[in-house]
Amino acid sequence: MNKTNIFSMKTKLRGIPPPVKPAGGGGPQAASGLEIRPGGMLVQKRTSDSNHSSNPKIKVRVKYGSSHHEITLSPEATFGELKKLLAGPTGLRPQDQKLVFKEKERDSRAFLDVCGVKDGSKIVLLEDELSKERRFLESRRTAKMEAASKEIAAVRVEVDRLAKQVVSVEMEINGGKKVVEGVVLNLIELLMIELIKLDGIAADGDVKLERRMQVKRVQKYIETLDVLKMRNSGLCKHKIFTGQTPTRHENQQQVQRNLSERAVVVTTNWQTF
């Protein structure tokens, strides 16, 4: 049995048409639509556009308000993928979109071809009202927090300015120098005004933490001024009773006593902010 007979028997068993011989003779050739692979196996002939035809594209028309958008994508894509493609031309985030096909809202996980979407199909895009409301509330909250942050920053700047005056008064009194009582009282009043401002600022999260830090800071300066006011009053009485200026040694002793008093004397009762 020659090779040609053996090959004919194999093709009959596989249900493949036998190769035909050309008129001029020669080796076996592939039948129409088939090609011979190395080893003599017959397979379907490959064409240059086979890959293109296996992955077709469709064009859908999406209506959003008074505008229309044509989107080209695979029919095997999901409605969620279509939403991502629509985010650019419409300006809507995918989570804010509702796609309606054949008068029915489609889930983002549903496939286009399974739902019957074909080339030229029309889809309606709507904005999700609940999502729109959530975004509106979120934007209001963000604006509110930004405003609160600016108010706290303004208070911080003013407290920084007053803090320098507190340090200056503290250095003078600790050095044994009498300070006009009105200066101390004025600083306390100005700091109390800033404390009231902080109390009126509504904040959440990090902004609330920043407000609390500034409240504690202002309270600390007011407590310091309360102690300095008592110490300043003591310096005045000392000069009246002795009728002379305290010596350097007496000043040092007075400063040490004042420091010990400062550790325990707090005359202001604070509320929790």
Secondary-structure blueprint:
Blueprint: H1 3-14, E1 34-36, E2 42-44, H2 50-54, E3 58-64, E4 67-73, H3 79-90, E5 97-100, E6 122-127, H4 129-174, H5 181-199, H6 205-242, H7 248-262
Parallel strand pairs: 3-6
Antiparallel strand pairs: 1-2, 3-4, 5-6
Task: Describe what is shown at a glance.
Helix content is 54%, strand content 11%. It is an alpha+beta fold and 273 residues long. α4 (129-174) runs antiparallel to α5, α4 (129-174) runs parallel beside α6 and α5 packs antiparallel against α6.
Describe the structure.
The protein has 273 residues and is an alpha+beta fold. The chain has 3 domains: 3-47, no CATH class; 55-127, Phosphatidylinositol 3-kinase Catalytic Subunit, Chain A, domain 1 (Ubiquitin-like (UB roll)), CATH 3.10.20.90; 134-262, Methane Monooxygenase Hydroxylase, Chain G, domain 1, CATH 1.20.58. It is 54% helix and 11% strand. It is built from 7 helices and 6 strands. It has helices spanning 3-14, 50-54, 79-90, 129-174, 181-199, 205-242, 248-262; strands at residues 34-36, 42-44, 58-64, 67-73, 97-100, 122-127. The strands form 2 sheets. Strands 4-3-6-5 form a 4-stranded mixed sheet. Helix 4 (129-174) runs antiparallel to helix 5, helix 4 (129-174) packs parallel to helix 6 (205-242) and helix 5 runs antiparallel to helix 6. The protein is rod-shaped. The chain starts with a helix and ends in an 11-residue tail after the last helix. Mean pLDDT is 78; it is low at 22-30, 48-53, 238-245 and 261-266.
